[in-house]
């Protein structure tokens, strides 16, 4: 029997060793030689010490030798398994407790719930909830209640999270934050904001985590006004200067709400500009179709000496694809190969495939796919999407079938790409089969991305009743849902439904974005509603605070041009807010031909050729105008110029639109 003095000496040494594993090893060797490692008090103490330094193997070894395990060792080991990334072992440990389960304290139970959360094991989480309820822990412990809220929220069960919250005897800022975060993470932005407001009414002060969660909610539903109000609260508390997570959440909120200038302003004010804030800003610029600004951020990142990680590289490849900058994309490709990232990250490989496809370099995209060491669902999705972008109709569905033959199960991204293909090539019957499979898997109940793709597919196939039916099933809706349906009605000239949906969007608190407004302008052009278009063009900036883009201005040139209102078309064309592009120049040239204004047509032609001398549309339109006026010699000169420049890229001009 070890003497109490020996045990005391070892315990004292352990307490003073500052948890240094080398010292622990020496002490344990001495304890084992002296026969002290199985001593009940000392052994239980050793388990806790080993867990603290992350040596779970030794902790379990000592634990198994103990004839009498106490509360400290059971709880320490369970907590340690979760803390150091072995959640399954924590649950297995609980299964071995048997009659000793009463020894688990609230921190041990919280660890088990965190294990279920990490594993996404809702079934076992519900089992633990029943155990806690039987032992009345839920009613007595806010800590356990909060962990339950977090578990249900992260396992896609926000309603259960709310029920647990409502049953808590004492709600605190941590439980409120867990509920808000749960709603925010799963797209229930309105509910998250409602909880945030109710929490404040009940006198609870939000902490940094609360603010970052509710900002995520604002970002998810485009609640810019509420996000700006929360920004003011954060400024009042000085949190941007002290909490990087809150600062990054603000950048993200403004970026996702389409206010990139404000996002940049917040970013510039951050005391530390880290890889998260930079990647957030880059992603925001890409989403807002400002790829060049995204690459400027990448350059700043390189100036700061911050190495791009996988997520940043993916965002920048998306930027390159959006602006057809294959050269910058190739540089990023070379960089990630040098770092050995492509071989270990399928998402990066997928981004490379996507970038090359968008730059119309399908052979390069296929080559990246072929060189990947292992194919997975991400790489297959990227390849299918690449062929969708390049409009290779037969190959898209063939790859989908091949992927399945090789044992890969389609995920939501696969379905989105295939639905995109069905919509692009008008194969409604195949789309309906995919829809049936999606229904069978229950994806529509929780995957908005798939739902939006279904709406888009039916709309592009002209099945607007089916598109509306799917739209009506979706919950919650986002701006993409609305855009898909509005674009469908717009494409088929249903002006009444477009305006009705825009009104409904406003009532639901969803801000239209530039894509929404392009669809609306297309309808107005198609219908020749010039006065309404002019009113709408000014309305979108005044009502929705959206700065007209080059695309909006191009459509206005087309609208005025089709109506023969050349002066107004020129006024929009000459607006210095954005430089004119080839499409706008062609719009103006087409309008000049329609109005018979030769001098202005010459200027528009000169501008178009300057922007893209290989584009055939300018030569065709100018030549046709000369022929209309009987100026055959001038028409022949234009044709010779076209041949000399090798201008064979063809672009159709119809109804004031360019395709």
Number of helical elements = 40
Q: How is the main sheet built?
A: 2 strands, antiparallel
Q: Uncertain regions: pLDDT < 50 for 5+ in a row?
A: 1-5, 652-659
In one word, what is the shape? Answer: elongated
Description:
The chain is mainly alpha-helical. The chain has a domain at 375-476. Helices cover 74% and strands 1% of the residues. The protein contains 40 helices and two strands. The protein has a two-stranded antiparallel ribbon. Strand 1 and strand 2 (657-658) form a beta hairpin. Helix 25 (377-389) packs parallel to helix 27. The chain is elongated and about 110 Å long. The model is unreliable at 1-5 and 652-659 (pLDDT under 50).
Q: In short, what is this structure?
A:
This protein has 659 residues and is mostly helical.
Secondary structure elements and their pairing?
Layout: H1 4-16, H2 21-33, H3 40-52, H4 56-65, H5 71-83, H6 87-95, H7 106-119, H8 122-134, H9 137-140, H10 142-154, H11 158-167, H12 173-185, H13 189-201, H14 208-221, H15 224-237, H16 239-242, H17 244-256, H18 260-269, H19 275-287, H20 291-303, H21 310-322, H22 326-338, H23 346-358, H24 362-371, H25 377-389, H26 393-405, H27 412-425, H28 428-441, H29 448-460, H30 464-473, H31 479-491, H32 495-508, H33 514-527, H34 530-544, H35 550-562, H36 566-573, H37 582-595, H38 598-611, H39 616-628, H40 632-645, E1 653-654, E2 657-658
Antiparallel strand pairs: 1-2
Labels describing this entry:
mainly alpha; RNA binding; PPR_rpt; Pentatricopeptide repeat-containing protein; 40 helices; repeat; 659 residues; two-stranded antiparallel sheet; elongated; TPR_rpt; 1% strand; disordered N terminus
């Amino acid at each position: 029997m070890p003497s109490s003095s020996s045990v005391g000496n070892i315990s004292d040494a352990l307490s003073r060793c500052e948890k240094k594993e080398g010292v622990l090893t020496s002490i344990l060797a001495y304890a084992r030689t002296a026969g002290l490692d199985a001593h009940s008090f000392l052994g239980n103490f050793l388990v806790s010490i080993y867990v603290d330094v992350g040596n779970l193997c030794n902790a379990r070894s000592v634990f198994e030798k103990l004839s009498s395990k106490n509360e400290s060792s059971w709880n320490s080991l369970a907590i340690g398994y979760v803390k150091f990334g072995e959640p399954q072992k924590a649950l297995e440990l609980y299964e071995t407790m048997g009659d000793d389960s009463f020894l688990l304290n609230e921190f041990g139970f919280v660890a088990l719930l965190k294990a279920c959360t990490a594993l996404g094991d809702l079934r076992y989480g519900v089992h633990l909830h029943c155990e806690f309820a039987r032992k009345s822990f839920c009613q007595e412990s806010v800590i356990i209640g909060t962990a339950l809220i977090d578990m249900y929220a992260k396992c896609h069960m926000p309603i259960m999270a709310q029920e647990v919250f409502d049953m808590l005897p004492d709600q605190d800022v941590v439980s409120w934050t867990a509920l808000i975060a749960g709603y925010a993470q799963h797209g229930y932005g309105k509910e998250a904001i409602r909880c945030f407001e109710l929490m404040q009414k009940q006198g609870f002060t939000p902490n940094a985590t609360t603010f970052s969660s509710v900002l995520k909610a604002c970002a998810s539903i485009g609640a810019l006004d509420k996000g700006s109000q929360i920004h003011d609260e954060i400024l009042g508390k000085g949190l941007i200067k002290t909490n990087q997570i809150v600062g990054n959440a603000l950048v993200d909120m403004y970026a996702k709400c389409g206010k990139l200038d404000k996002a940049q302003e917040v970013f510039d004010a951050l005391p530390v500009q880290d890889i998260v804030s930079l990647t957030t800003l880059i992603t925001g610029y890409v989403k807002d179709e400002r790829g060049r600004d995204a690459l400027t951020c990448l350059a700043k990142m390189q100036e700061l000496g911050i190495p791009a990680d996988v997520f940043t590289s993916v965002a920048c490849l998306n930027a390159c694809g959006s602006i057809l900058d294959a050269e910058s994309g190739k540089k990023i490709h070379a960089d990630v190969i040098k770092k050995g990232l492509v071989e270990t990250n399928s998402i990066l490989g997928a981004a490379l495939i996507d970038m090359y496809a968008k730059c119309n370099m399908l052979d390069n995209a296929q080559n990246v796919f072929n060189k990947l060491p292992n194919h997975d669902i991400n790489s297959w999705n990227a390849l299918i999407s690449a062929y969708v972008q390049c409009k290779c109709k037969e190959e898209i569905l063939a790859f989908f079938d091949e992927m399945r033959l090789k044992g890969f199960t389609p995920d939501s991204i696969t379905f989105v790409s295939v639905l995109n293909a069905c919509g692009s090539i008008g194969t409604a019957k195949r789309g309906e089969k995919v829809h049936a499979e999606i229904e069978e898997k229950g994806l529509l109940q929780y995957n908005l991305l798939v739902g939006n793709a279904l709406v888009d597919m039916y709309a592009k196939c002209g099945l607007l009743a089916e598109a509306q039916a799917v739209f009506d099933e979706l919950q919650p809706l986002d701006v993409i849902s609305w855009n898909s349906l509005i674009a469908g009605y717009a494409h088929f000239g249903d002006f009444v439904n477009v305006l009705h949906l825009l009104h409904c969007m406003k009532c639901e608190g969803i801000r239209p974005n530039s894509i929404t407004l392009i669809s609306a302008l297309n309808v107005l052009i198609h219908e020749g509603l010039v006065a309404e278009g002019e009113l709408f063009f000014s309305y979108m900036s005044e009502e929705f605070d959206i700065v007209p883009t080059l695309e909006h201005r191009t459509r206005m040139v087309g609208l005025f041009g089709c109506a023969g209102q050349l002066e107004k078309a020129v006024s929009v064309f000459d607006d210095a807010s954005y430089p004119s592009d080839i499409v706008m120049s062609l719009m103006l040239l087409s309008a000049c031909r329609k109005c018979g204004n030769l001098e202005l047509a010459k200027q528009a032609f000169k501008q178009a050729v300057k922007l893209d001398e290989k584009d055939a549309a300018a030569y065709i339109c100018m030549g046709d105008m000369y022929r209309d006026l009987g100026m055959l010699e001038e028409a022949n000169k234009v044709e010779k110029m076209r041949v000399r420049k090798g201008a064979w890229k063809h672009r159709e001009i119809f109804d004031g639109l360019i395709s």
